[in-house]
Every structure is written in C-alpha cells, then in structure tokens.
TrEMBL record:
Organism taxonomic ancestry: Bacteria, Pseudomonadati, Bacteroidota, Cytophagia, Cytophagales
Residue ranges of the TM segments: 5-24, 30-47, 59-80, 132-159
Gene Ontology biological process: monoatomic ion transmembrane transport
Gene3D superfamilies to which the protein is assigned, alphabetical: 1.10.287.70
Protein's name according to its UniProt entry: Potassium channel family protein
Entry keywords, A to Z: Ion channel, Ion transport, Membrane, Transmembrane, Transmembrane helix, Transport
The keyword Transmembrane is assigned to this record: yes
C-alpha cells in the first residue's frame, strides 16, 4: 500500500513541478501556483519586516530571495517526486557493485545526482525499466533546470530597463503638478509632447515584461528616482489632471497623450494578478493647488468623470502600498544629490 501511495504522490509532485516551471517560464501571463503563492508569501514577510523595523532597506533583498526560492522549489518538487517513485519499488535502485537494493537515503541521493547529470555511478537502476527511467530523469532534468536558470537571466536585464525608464519619467518633474508646471510655456502644455515621445512604447513593454516575468514586481528600489511604480503613479496622476482639469486646446495632442495613457492602463492590468484588491482603500486626494496658484486656466470636471477614475486611482494607491510606498510620496522630490546645482532639484 505504501508503494502505491509513494508512486501516486511522486507523479503528482512531478506534474506540479513541471507545470509550475513551464507555466512560469513560457506562459504569457503570470506565474505558476507554487511560484505565485510562494512569491507573495515571501514578499509579505519582507513587507512586514520593513514595517516592523521601520526601514525599507529590508525590502531590497526580496527579489533575489524570491528568485532563489522559485528555482529551489522547482528542483525540490522534481527531486522529491522522482525519489518517491524510486521508493515505490524495492528493486528500483541497487548498488552498482553488489546489486543490493538501496535504502531510502541512497535513493534520494541517487535521484539528486541523476537530475543534476552528475553520474557518480555508485548506484544504478535495478531493472531495464528502471535504467531507462533513470536515463529519462537525467535528460529531462537537464532540460528543465536549464530552462529554469535561463528564465532568470532576462529578469536582470529587465530590471535595468525598468530603472532607466523610471529615471526618464522622474526627470519630467518631482510631482504630478510639477510635471505639468515644468512644461507650461505660458500658453499651453504642448512641451510635454517631447517628453511623451516614445514613452508609451517603453511603458507598454514594461507591462508585458511584468506579465512574462512576474518576479520583476518584487525587485524593490528605495531610491525614488529608480522606483518605477512610484514614478508611474506620479505620471498617471499628471495625465489625469490634464484630462480632467485642462482644456483640450491647452493639452498635448491626443496622438501623444492617449497612447501613453493606454500604455499605463495595460501596465496596471499586468499587475492585477499580484496586487491585492483596492476595494477597502480610500480614493487619494487629487491635488491641483499649485496649478491654481500659477494662474493656469483650468476647467471644472464633471462629477461623472471623477467617478470613472475612482477605481483606477484606488488601484494605484493599492499598488503603491503593496510595494512599500505611500501615496503622498508621489509628490516628494525624486532626485536628491550633492553633485549638481541646488536650484534644479
């Protein structure tokens, strides 16, 4: 009876491991069940530690830890599953010289070095069927582990691209209102068009990268200038102000404004898998005081338009809180350095 149970559990573990690995690495949206739940659990631990010790530096290592957990979980599931299958038959693994059946520890050891293609040769399959199965494990293990490691390499490249995009957005202005004020020429906001040029494509690409590599979401940067989610929320808020309060003839052209807005929407949709529901959060305050003080001609938006953006802005708020930021920080200075003129910060 134990042998049948071992065999069934082994098959289930292998199927779960292979499915989780292949879905995470090849599926165009999201992570597998084990990778997804494990990543969320680890991130919440790091988030709790950052709140407990009141430092965001605790979040800096979350991305690397989650990557290591993901790879390790795949290896462990495959290793444990094949070990259980070997335990289902007393003659499955024998010593190479004496052909004495291996004990449980030896079978686990044999499975491990077979998966890694190490091939020490001190144990072997007890029958022809088990020898063929051993060859299959070695071959499939090499392929799956190679896929797992190869999956991680593009993530590091994507992290660099994300930092670059974040700096580009932050350079437009330290806050949603300053993004607009910095481009006000006394007549309109057409100057924003040069900032928006090509930005929609980069934002859309980051959204797709988040779908393909969900682990990207857990790489935290404490510097505001390279924190993409923080700067993207600031940019989206600036676009909301433009669409709600600025007359259409004073805005950037729809050809530059609308594609960027839609690209941000696709980015937000890519985060719905890993960001908690924002239903319990209050909608953040939409500030336009600095624009009013600058005597910029504004229009009063319709109440229905404000209501339509309620869900979006709640989600942005939830997204920021999930990665350790507060909504008020989108209006804080992004660049703090002693290497430049003070008046440009």
């Amino acid at each position: 009876m134990d042998e049948v149970l071992y065999f069934i559990l082994g098959i289930l573990l292998i199927c779960l491991g292979v499915y989780d690995l292949l879905y995470t690495t090849f599926a165009p949206r999201g992570a597998g069940p084990v990778s997804g739940l494990g990543s969320t659990f680890i991130w919440r631990i790091f988030l709790g530690l950052s709140k407990l010790f009141k430092t965001r530096k605790a979040l800096a290592g979350a991305g690397i830890i989650i990557i290591m957990f993901t790879i390790l979980s795949w290896v462990v599931m495959l290793w444990a599953g094949h070990s259980l299958i070997y335990l289902a038959d007393g003659d499955a693994v024998v010593a190479s010289t004496t052909e004495v059946p291996a004990n449980a520890i030896d079978r686990i050891y044999f499975t491990g070095y077979t998966l890694s293609t190490l091939g020490n040769g001190d144990f072997k399959g007890g029958t022809n069927v088990w020898r063929v199965y051993t060859a299959f494990i070695s071959f499939s293990g090499l392929i799956l582990i190679t896929i797992a490691i190869s999956y991680m390499v593009p993530i590091l490249s994507a992290v660099t691209e994300r930092r670059s995009l974040s700096i580009r957005i932050a350079s437009i202005g330290d806050s949603p209102q300053l993004m607009l004020l910095n481009s006000w020429n006394g007549e309109d906001f057409k100057g924003l068009e040069q900032h928006f040029d090509g930005l929609a494509l980069e934002v859309a690409k980051q959204g797709q990268l988040h779908l393909a590599y969900p682990l990207l979401h857990y790489f935290y940067h404490s510097e505001k200038s390279v924190a993409l989610l923080l700067n993207l929320a600031s940019l989206d808020e600036a676009l909301s102000i433009l669409l709600l309060y600025v007359p259409e003839d004073l805005r950037p052209s729809n050809q530059s404004l609308l594609p960027l807005r839609r690209a941000i929407t696709t980015f937000l949709e890519s985060l719905t898998v890993i960001t908690p529901s924002p239903k319990s959060l209050e909608e953040p305050y939409l500030a336009i005081k600095q624009l009013e003080e600058a005597n910029i001609p504004l229009q009063l938006p319709e109440a229905s338009c404000l209501d339509q953006l309620c869900k979006r802005r709640k989600f942005l708020n939830a997204m920021l809180q999930y990665v350790g930021w507060e909504w008020e920080e989108i209006a804080n200075p992004k660049f703090i350095t002693d290497l430049d003129l003070r008046e440009i910060h």
